[in-house]
Each structure stands twice: as structure tokens, then as C-alpha cells.
């Protein structure tokens, strides 16, 4: 039996997404062996982050600043709004470096079965932002799943208005694929090939 | 650009052994999304561990108690001492559940090239412990590498004395294999098949 505290840490990390028991053990042992250079700085960084992290009240991103680093960046194009399901998708698009606008995190997809309607998905606030930001292009970057595409079509129909170009990132990704799992190259291509959706107004 | 603090956390975790950028991102996002249930308890556990962790002055294990959980366990057989290279090896043997004695962590292997002699490896203290614990069996569980086996032979020759049975875990493991990478089953077999080394005294 390894000590209870250390066993607790290993168990904690073992259950995290992307980690297993082996990674967790190696990771914990590494931290314990490098207390000054690794473990203590990590605790400081985690504590600082925990104290300041919040959902950006504008876009829904998670950050230690509010509005988040992206929303408060003057060089981002506020008139180009990209809609994603989850924060992980926003991060994936940011890694691609291909998008210079701002984001709107829905928090999921519409699902009649699960009782998730527009009000559960920050869609009312999306409408507000389109108006207040004077959005000229709305790019839908939902996952290529049945629910994602249903939501895509709902948004395209619901938000259509004169002067608003609604685009969707290209389907360069396999069906069932989720943005968070894609390499940046695929995302760059998909963004570059985005197309205007046919709406009643267009 | 994701926020600087969060980017810092992701970078930190990306560099840890057993983790990569994808695991790190998923892990950080998971922590941020579960601040109360995951992130804050993790910070507490890490801080408590950092405050109390030390090398066991007896065996060299890392624990938040000193002597460690193993050395202070009255049910362990203090007369059976198992020598390992690293704390990770001790943990691997503990996972197998096959060893009921106590340990001695050398901290590495003898290496003339790297200037690592007996005094760098807690070998003098190993001799002391054998005397004070009245050790009756010394099991050498060094890695099956050239350095490990060289150290094995050195220890067998150096520590040989009447009344001390010196055993070595069986070579049921591939050459070049390291204990930390083995499954518990292999370790159980290797321990059960340990053999007495031929020494001058025997
Ligand atoms: Zn934001
Ligand atoms: Zn100990």
C-alpha cells in the first residue's frame, strides 16, 4: 500500500479524461520528485485559475478574464461571429489560427428527446449579440453529427435576416467527427471552404 | 489565443510524462468545467501532499508520512528487505501485492562512467539497516538492465554474510525491461521464483 494521500492523487488523475492509471502514477511521481520546480508552481497556477475562471458573459468561453481574451482583443473582427457547440470546439478552432472573428458557445445542440430547446442553448442571447455587434457574417461550426446539423438548420432558418450572411464550415470532416478531435489543417480547409447557406431571405 | 493562465496550465500538463497536448487540453477543460467538484478538491489534495511529502528516512519511499506507510505498518515482515532502484519500482511491487516485507530504495545503479559509486546509492545505509533490522532475507529486485545486474552482483558480493539469505527476483522479464512497466502477474511470478544467489559464504 502506497500512502493514502498519494494513492488519492493517483486515483484522482486516473479518472480524468485522457489519462489512465499508468499515466497518473508517472505523473504523480514526477510531481512529488520535483516539488519545488513543478508541484508548487502547479498548485499556484491551479489556485489562481480556480479563483478567476468564469464563463465569458459575452461568448461563453472559459477564461480567467471576463470578457475573455478573445472578446477583449481589439484586433478580432467583431462583425464575424462563429457559433460552436462547446468550449472545446472554440479551442480547436483557435488552434487552427484560421478564424479572426469572435465566438458564441451554444453549450450543446437542440434535442427534443432531452428537452433541450433554444432557451437552453443561449440562442436568445445569440440573437441579441448579432444585433448589438452588427454582425455581418455568422459562421455555423457545429459538429457534423445529426444533432449538430439539426441545430445548424434551425439556426440558419431562425436567424436569417437581410444583411446577415450565414455560412457553415465545409463538411471536410468525416460524418460523426467532432471538431475537438480534428487536426488544425482540416479545420483550416473547412473554414476556408465555408459556404453561404440558402435561406428564405437570400 | 486561449487565455494565458489556461494556456499555461495546458502547456504544463502537456510536458508531463505520460501526457500529450490532447490529454492536457481535455484534462484542463474538465477541471475548469467542474471547479467545485474537481478543481478545488484537487488543489487541496496537491497542497496537502506538497506540504507533507518527504522521502522516508528509512526506505527512501515518497510519502506524506515519515516513516512511510509501509515502514510503519506493523504487519510487514521487517526481516525481509527488498532492494529496488527507484520509488516507481517500489510502487510496482506494491501493486503486485506479492511482497510482505519492507523496501530499500537505492536511488539508481552503480555507474563508473557517471561517477556513481556505493556512497551515492544509500548502500552504506543499506548495510546499517540489514544489521539493525536483523534482516534474514535480502531480495534484490533491480531492473534487468546491464547497470541493474552489475549492481545486483556488487550487492550480492558486498553484503554476503552468515545468516543472511540473498535472493534475486526471477528473470521472468524481458532483457531491458523495467519493473515499472510490468504487469502485476509477471511481478508475482518473478517474486515467487526468486532464487538464492551463490555467494562466497554460501
Ligand atoms: Zn468571450
Ligand atoms: Zn519507508
From TrEMBL, chains A, B:
InterPro entries: DNA_Rcmb_RecR (IPR000093), Rcmb_RecR (IPR023627), Rcmb_RecR_Znf (IPR015967), TOPRIM_dom (IPR006171), TOPRIM_RecR (IPR034137)
Keywords linked to the UniProt accession: DNA damage, DNA recombination, DNA repair, Metal-binding, Zinc, Zinc-finger
Single biological process term from Gene Ontology: DNA repair
Domain Toprim: 79-174
Zinc finger (C4-type) boundaries: 56-71
Molecular function GO terms recorded: DNA binding; zinc ion binding
Purpose of the protein: May play a role in DNA repair. It seems to be involved in an RecBC-independent recombinational process of DNA repair. It may act with RecF and RecO.
UniProt family annotation: Belongs to the RecR family.
NCBIfam families, per database record: recR (TIGR00615)
Protein name: Recombination protein RecR
Species annotation: Candidatus Bodocaedibacter vickermanii
Classification lineage: Bacteria, Pseudomonadati, Pseudomonadota, Alphaproteobacteria, Holosporales
Gene: recR
Amino acid at each position: 500500500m502506497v500512502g493514502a494521500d498519494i494513492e488519492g492523487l493517483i486515483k484522482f488523475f486516473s479518472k480524468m479524461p485522457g489519462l489512465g492509471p499508468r499515466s497518473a502514477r508517472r505523473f504523480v511521481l514526477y510531481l512529488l520528485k520535483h516539488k519545488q520546480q513543478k508541484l508548487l508552481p502547479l498548485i499556484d497556477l491551479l489556485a489562481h485559475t480556480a479563483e478567476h475562471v468564469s464563463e465569458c458573459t459575452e461568448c461563453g468561453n472559459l477564461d480567467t478574464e471576463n470578457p475573455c481574451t478573445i472578446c477583449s482583443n481589439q484586433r478580432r473582427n467583431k462583425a464575424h461571429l462563429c457559433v460552436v457547440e462547446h468550449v472545446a470546439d472554440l479551442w480547436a478552432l483557435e488552434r487552427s489560427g484560421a478564424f479572426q472573428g469572435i465566438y458564441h458557445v451554444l453549450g450543446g445542440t437542440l434535442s427534443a428527446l432531452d428537452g433541450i430547446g433554444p432557451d437552453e442553448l443561449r440562442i436568445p442571447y445569440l440573437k441579441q449579440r448579432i444585433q448589438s455587434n452588427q454582425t455581418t457574417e455568422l459562421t455555423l461550426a457545429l459538429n457534423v453529427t445529426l444533432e449538430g446539423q439539426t441545430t445548424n438548420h434551425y439556426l440558419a432558418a431562425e436567424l436569417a435576416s437581410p444583411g446577415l450572411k450565414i455560412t457553415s464550415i465545409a463538411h471536410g470532416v468525416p460524418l460523426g467527427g467532432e471538431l475537438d478531435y480534428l487536426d488544425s489543417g482540416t479545420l483550416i480547409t473547412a473554414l476556408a471552404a465555408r459556404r453561404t447557406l440558402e435561406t428564405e431571405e437570400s
